[in-house]
Design a protein that fits this description.
Layout: H1 2-26
Length: 50
Amino acid sequence: MLGKLFKLLFILAIIGFIALVGFAYVGPELGIDFAPTTQEIHLPVTLQGQ
């Protein structure tokens, strides 16, 4: 019984991984952009020294 449960979980994990990889490849074709938004940040830096 426990062996069948582990086998089922393993199969579901494999199917989930394949679905995730497939979505990553097909997502941009569907108009889904996975790129993060970029923003330029300027921070003043004060250096200690001479």
